[in-house]
Amino acid sequence: MPELRDLYQEVILEHSKAPRNYKALAGANHKAEGYNPLCGDRFTVYLEMDGDRIREIGFQGAGCAISKASASMMTQSVKGKTKEEAEKIFHRFHELVTGHSHGDEAELGKLAVFSGVSEFPVRVKCATLAWHTLEAALEGKQEKVSTE
Amino acid sequence: MSAATAVPIREKTSATSFDVERIRKDFPILQTKVHGHPLVYLDNAATAQKPQAVIDALVRYYENENANIHRGVHYLSQLATEEFEKARALVRAFVNAARASEIIFTRGTTEALNLVAQTYGRANVSARDEVLITALEHHSNIVPWQLLCAEKGAKLQVVPISDAGEVLVEEYATLLGPKTKIVAIAHVSNALGTINPLEQMIAMAHERGAVVVVDGAQAVPHLKVDVQALGADFYAFSGHKMYGPTGIGALYGKQALLEAMPPWQGGGDMISSVTFEKTTYNKVPHKFEAGTPDMAGVAGLKAAIEYMNGIGIEKIAAHEHDLLEYATEVIGALPGVRLIGTAREKASVLSFVLEEAHPHDIGTILDQQGIAVRTGHHCAQPVMERFQIPATVRASFAVYNTKSEVDALARGIRKVREVFA
């Protein structure tokens, strides 16, 4: 039986209550909006790209604890990374939360706390919403992304 | 007699008593364990569970009666036709329509509402006309009218609701005008549980010459519905929310309106004769029942109505009213809880938000304790917008729910607060 504490780890709860980089960036040159119609989660991710590198990142919006904490910790983990590096982290993260990890969680650092999500398949969309939004922002897509 | 001693003492033999424990035994799924806990099913507004009698009716249909209706001269086809039309007669009595021919079987409420929009609506709504709905409608009583209005260049008008979740009748009176051709209203709100003052609203619409379409999906499981007393022109509902199977529902329509309406879907059963030059349509209700219908579903719906009649809709309503009052008191008193939808007249639904946690997190934590609630916008996004919330937690009650299940919900919410403390 999946344990609630595996999902709602202290770090996750803490980030959901006090999200980092929770701001709109005045100098953003990339931006995307993500929406999960299932639970009404809605986030905007702002990027200040320096060539291929994420110089600054911020997000705003509303959502459940999982989606908010994921967004917050995502901003910390991809700041300063190149587009390619950020996408690789998302790929790893996606494997982690869907239970397809290859035992290389260490590469994910703090993000490994989200491993409990794989026991709650309906919550995968919550955990990945901000990441899909980041991906769209990196691609420079203008349309709203949805995890439905 | 050993059989008699096995009956618990509280189960009085009186046919008039209401014994929820006895009723629970009629629903096999209620024995389910979820994550090691007994299932507490509080998502009845989404779909209700089915009693054994309904499940048996589906099996009985396929085992003993299956044949296509209205076309065979053979024994089984006649039997199936007879059972099908008996079910129609029972639905007629269930909502007190004047005639069985005023009952059209559909896939459910959504299809019934679309049928009205696409036939009556397309024939009677023109450019600059208005269709009037309320701010507490389910998407299925919004989108069919948006489609119609877009096609015809008509205008969709919306009656606002109060902070309690009640339709503002004065605003309704103002919005009802000479251009209003159709008024589409829910009898009971799925997101908030509000019971609308239908009789009054329908009378007001008729004074202005508008036709009224009622979404009765959330009303038929909980209230005695009398379409003639209400004065409704159309009344749509689903079987699966009233203990019947999925995929079957009904539309009531006044005979004269149905006769004047063009058909919707073309096919078998809805015609009298077909040549390549000219097709003559069948009479109502068959004109609106193209193709082979869900005959097993109709048998299941009949069994569901018989089941509800066996208990008595007044008793079902009284029991659910008790539960809702109890839940409103117990859940409403929990710290951090804000009830959404506090209308004076309500049925079955308790919607709320919690200060500390998002509804989706609450849903997961309750699920871990075997408690099934709905979290989200309940297909009523404009209602969520009205209250400026992304979602709510919705507990909705049925005949088999108990006060101890409400207590379990309260314990569950306390657990949420512990996790998020």
The name CATH uses for the topology of the largest domain in chain B is Aspartate Aminotransferase, domain 2
Span from first to last CA of chain A?
A: 26 Å
CATH class of the largest domain in chain B: Alpha Beta
What is the oligomer described by this structure?
A: heterodimer
Per CATH, which architecture of the largest domain in chain B? 3-Layer(aba) Sandwich
> What does the main sheet of chain A amount to?
4 strands, mixed
Low-confidence stretches of chain A: none
Structural class, from secondary structure content of chain B?
alpha/beta
- Placed side by side, the strands forming the largest sheet of chain B appear as 4-10-9-8-7-5-6
Could you characterize the architecture of this molecule?
The complex is a heterodimer of chains A (148) and B (421). Chain A has 148 residues and is α+β, with helices and mostly antiparallel strands. Chain A has one domain: Sufe protein. Chain: A (Alpha-Beta Complex), CATH 3.90.1010.10. Chain A is 39% helix and 20% strand. Chain A is globular and about 40 Å long. Chain B is of the alpha/beta class. In chain B, the strands form five sheets. A seven-stranded mixed sheet of chain B has the order 4-10-9-8-7-5-6, sandwiched between helices. Chain B has a four-stranded antiparallel sheet with strand order 13-14-17-16, covered by helices on one side. The longest helix of chain B has 21 residues. Chains A and B meet through loops of A and helix 13 of B.
Keywords:
heterodimer, A: 148 residues, alpha+beta, Sufe protein. Chain: A, B: 421 residues, alpha/beta, Aspartate Aminotransferase, domain 1, Aspartate Aminotransferase, domain 2, 15 helices, 40% helix
Write the layout of secondary structure elements.
The complex is a heterodimer of chains A (148) and B (421).
Chain A: H1 4-7, H2 10-17, E1 30-36, E2 41-50, E3 53-62, H3 65-78, H4 83-97, H5 124-139, E4 145-146
Parallel strand pairs in A: 1-4
Antiparallel strand pairs in A: 1-2, 2-3
Chain B: H1 2-5, H2 20-24, E1 33-34, E2 37-38, E3 40-41, H3 52-65, H4 75-95, E4 103-106, H5 109-124, E5 130-134, H6 143-152, E6 155-159, H7 169-175, E7 180-186, H8 198-207, E8 211-215, H9 227-230, E9 234-238, E10 249-253, H10 255-260, E11 271-274, E12 279-281, H11 295-311, H12 313-332, E13 337-340, E14 349-354, H13 359-367, E15 371-372, E16 374-376, H14 381-386, E17 392-396, H15 403-420
Parallel strand pairs in B: 3-15, 5-6, 5-7, 7-8, 8-9
Antiparallel strand pairs in B: 1-2, 4-10, 9-10, 11-12, 13-14, 14-17, 16-17
Helix pairs in contact in B: 3-11, 4-11, 5-6, 12-15, 13-15
